[in-house]
Amino acid sequence: MKNIVWIKHASQLATLSQSGKGPRIKKAMNELSIIEDGSIWIENGLIKAVGTTEELEELFESRAHEAEITDATGHLVTPGLVDPHTHVAYGGSREKEFEMRLEGATYMEIMNAGGGIHSTTKMTREATEDELVAQSLRRLDSFLNHGVTTIEGKSGYGLNLETELKQLRVMKRLQNEHPIDLVPTFMGAHAVPVEYKGREEEYVTLVIDEMIPAVAKEQLAIFNDVFCEVGVFTPEQSRRILEAGKRYGLIPKIHADEIEPYEGAELAASVGAISAEHLLQASDEGIQAMAAAGTIACLLPATALYLREEAAEGRKMIDAGVPVAISTDCNPGSSPTTSMPLVMNLACISMRLTPAEALTAATYNAACAIKMEEITGSIEIGKQGDVVLWNCSNYQELQYLFGVNHVNSVWKNGIKVVG
Ligand code: NIG
Ligand code: FE
């Protein structure tokens, strides 16, 4: 039997439809391609028609009885949200460190004392594959309930060959066991593990000579990410790790200029990274270099808030011609959230994106940051039927009434998974 969904009478259907390829910059980030009294016909998981309800009635009225019909009168409808930066497949949790930070300890102090990424690494090493799958599935459910239909997920809590591969295999299982599409990233260079303290170069060699080839051999990742930060990996080490990944077909991404300025944005542009993440401390030269190279800035305003830091200069980056995406950074330390709606709100409030730019950054540009723009991130013929119906009547309201989950219903590949 055919699976047909017909969503009709959306007060605003923000299709984000796109002429031309690649992430949107400047003015185009404000162009949502809105259809009033909008309608979508989804057949066997794929979008078959988009237009006004009148137009689609002309095309499909004779087949209306075959469809599961949703009357979206009074509602905003958008593409499923895309979260292009998560660390979703981890073991344990770190609420004690949250308290320590509130009492004055800094994020890096906790990490340098063996906590932070190291404590999650310990818990992830100790967990079985089944335990990690079970914990992560709950997080994926929460993403879906917040309107997110596609995410990226990073390893980086193994920091040895065995556990890095375990985390990536867990993500492969999640991809099969959950409706959300999960795009995997290898991040063996998330931290130097405690047992390599004082032997950092040896760990870099392990990542380059053993981990990257093993990940590529099993085809467990699409991207290769590095935490380029003072006290973690230097720009020079980061470059070597990213170049090594490129030789194995892994596309570079970089956690850049998060805590201290370190020329990470410049490195992202020069190494040909698809995106640079965080960028709280990015220099003007780095921003210019990213604009010239077309590097996507993946900005994480929930992380900045959670670490009580000033958010990245999103407004300035867009105005400089950098394509901007946004993400939760879902992880147990600096951003334990699965709420992309909150991240959109924060993109407006703390980075001065317009409501339209925030929606573009969380859909089409986010899909570009993980090379998924051909199949999701906008509502266009031939793309996956990934759609959210919101309890709002327009896209400004979605950003304006903040800190609330406005999701009414979610379809993933044309199947109703929420609502
Ligand atoms: O993107 N900055 C480095 N990595 C993560 C945090 C990881 C953690 O604290 O467990 C981030 O914020
Ligand atoms: Fe991160």
Automatic annotation (TrEMBL):
Binds 1 zinc or iron ion per subunit. Gene3D superfamilies: Metal-dependent hydrolases, Urease, subunit C, domain 1. GO terms for molecular function: imidazolonepropionase activity. Zn(2+) binds at H85, H87, H255, D329. Belongs to the metallo-dependent hydrolases superfamily. HutI family. Its EC number is 3.5.2.7. Catalyzes the hydrolytic cleavage of the carbon-nitrogen bond in imidazolone-5-propanoate to yield N-formimidoyl-L-glutamate. It is the third step in the universal histidine degradation pathway. Pathway: Amino-acid degradation; L-histidine degradation into L-glutamate; N-formimidoyl-L-glutamate from L-histidine: step 3/3. Keywords: Cytoplasm, Histidine metabolism, Hydrolase, Iron, Metal-binding, Zinc. SUPFAM superfamilies: Composite domain of metallo-dependent hydrolases, Metallo-dependent hydrolases. This is Imidazolonepropionase. InterPro entries: Amidohydro-rel (IPR006680), HutI (IPR005920), Metal-dep_hydrolase_composite (IPR011059), Metal_Hydrolase (IPR032466). Its cofactor is Zn(2+); Fe(3+). N-formimidoyl-L-glutamate binds at Y157, N331, G333. Fe(3+) binds at H85, H87, H255, D329. It is an enzyme of class 3 (hydrolase). 4-imidazolone-5-propanoate binds at R94, Y157, H190, E258, S334. It is found in: Cytoplasm. Residues 76-414 form the Amidohydrolase-related domain. It catalyses: 4-imidazolone-5-propanoate + H2O = N-formimidoyl-L-glutamate. The keyword Iron applies.
